[in-house]
Amino acid sequence: MPIIEMHLMTGRSVEQKRAVAAAITEAVCTTLGVKAETVRILVTEHGSEDFSVAGMTAGLRTERQQESEGI
Amino acid sequence: MPIIEMHLMTGRSVEQKRAVAAAITEAVCTTLGVKAETVRILVTEHGSEDFSVAGMTAGLRTERQQESEGI
Amino acid sequence: MPIIEMHLMTGRSVEQKRAVAAAITEAVCTTLGVKAETVRILVTEHGSEDFSVAGMTAGLRTERQQESEGI
Amino acid sequence: MPIIEMHLMTGRSVEQKRAVAAAITEAVCTTLGVKAETVRILVTEHGSEDFSVAGMTAGLRTERQQESEGI
Amino acid sequence: MPIIEMHLMTGRSVEQKRAVAAAITEAVCTTLGVKAETVRILVTEHGSEDFSVAGMTAGLRTERQQESEGI
Amino acid sequence: MPIIEMHLMTGRSVEQKRAVAAAITEAVCTTLGVKAETVRILVTEHGSEDFSVAGMTAGLRTERQQESEGI
Question: What pLDDT digit, counting tens, does each position of F15-44 carry?
């Protein structure tokens, strides 16, 4: 511990994933006083139809915004 | 909050995913008295070898059923 | 499946928990065409220091709001 | 219940997935005294850039090791 | 990895928790060929109003059963 | 998104929880280029019998260590 699960929208680059893993681990070690070796992070990526806010998937939201902005 | 993670078998259509996101959000808002904007839903899909009941994956179960029904 | 994990702030009544379980299950059955028996819902409650938005726990947010409103 | 989520690195064979589902279910039934039908297992697979220990993704760790071992 | 989250109804004894942790770990090591040191298990317990099947919480189900059995 | 679930051993202070929420959020915003308002963190605490490594709960491990160190 700590064990961290992070849910992201798909599409992050390898560089971003490596950077966020390092940065979160440092943040946790500094504030909780744990050793880096105890920190594990699992990332799960979600497509645009697999995440919703206010009952609307991200994909539908994008579609609606594009419609409202004209073709 | 609420934050909801929903595990589904793979294969739902975009229409189904949009419909279930809207319906769950309405269900939660009505019964818990929260605003729709606070409801987030994450969907994770699992393949037929990544879900098991009673120690048998869905894929194995299907295979067994097909066998028992003859070729 | 579907298996649903719902994260809530602590403090919901038994009546609310029963109502939201019934309502989500109905929402899922109607939109995904699954049988109610296949729907499982797990609720995890989080205290005010165990949920944060924008880097601020709910507890700290409440504290700040009370301060800004006087006394 | 029990409901079990298992996070694995990608790349397990169908045979391994079926074997581990059966073995975990038996382990749970024996030690907790539950019926196999109540045990559900969800597997989520993570790629090498989606799992990190000590702030380093599995992919980066492999890369570093290969470098240190020479080409 | 593997990292395992197990959801249980509240009320397991310390002995049961220690036994199931050992048994699952052995099951995973044997079938997936991993070292025991890589297996981490997290248990989350859920009260009777925090788990539902078919839209009915475990608490409500018990209540109904007791009613149907007389006083 | 990102939505982050962090599993901790029980016993962190309110100050630690507030500090880690702020630090993780900043780490995520800096490396992924997201706005702080989109970052949600859920903390779940686990008791010493609810977390195991290598098939041994944290509670059992502590007990064994105390025994091996004499009374």
Answer: 999 999 999 999 999 999 999 999 999 999
- Tokens of residue A2, six digits: 């700590």
Output the six-digit token pair for E65. Answer: 């059963």
- Cβ atoms < 10 Å from Cβ of F35: 8
Q: Which of E1, E4, E51 sits opposite D4 (nearest CB)?
A: E4
Q: At what angle do helices B14-32 and C14-32 cross, to 10 degrees?
A: 160
Identify residue F12 by its one-letter amino acid code. Answer: R
Chain A residues lying within 8 Å of D60, measured CB to CB:
18
Q: Do B21 and A55 touch (CB under 8 A)?
A: yes
Q: What is the mean pLDDT of chain A?
A: 96
The secondary structure of A22-47, three-state, reads: HHHHHHHHHHHCCCHHHCEEEEEEEC
State how far the Cα of B16 lies from the Cα of A71, in Å rounded to an integer: 25
Beta carbons of E8 and E46 less than 8 angstroms apart? yes
Mutate to test the interface with E, among F9, F57, F61, F64 (most CBs of E within 10 A): F57
- Structure confidence by residue, pLDDT tens digits, B23-51: 999 999 999 999 999 999 999 999 999 99
pLDDT digits (tens, 9 = 90+) for E18-52: 999 999 999 999 999 999 999 999 999 999 999 99
What is the predicted ipTM? 0.96
Contact state of F32 with A16 under an 8 Å Cβ cutoff: yes
Q: How far apart are CA E24 and CA E5, in angstroms?
A: 11
CATH code for residues B3-68: 3.30.429.10
F40/B40 touch (CB, cutoff 8 Å), yes or no? yes
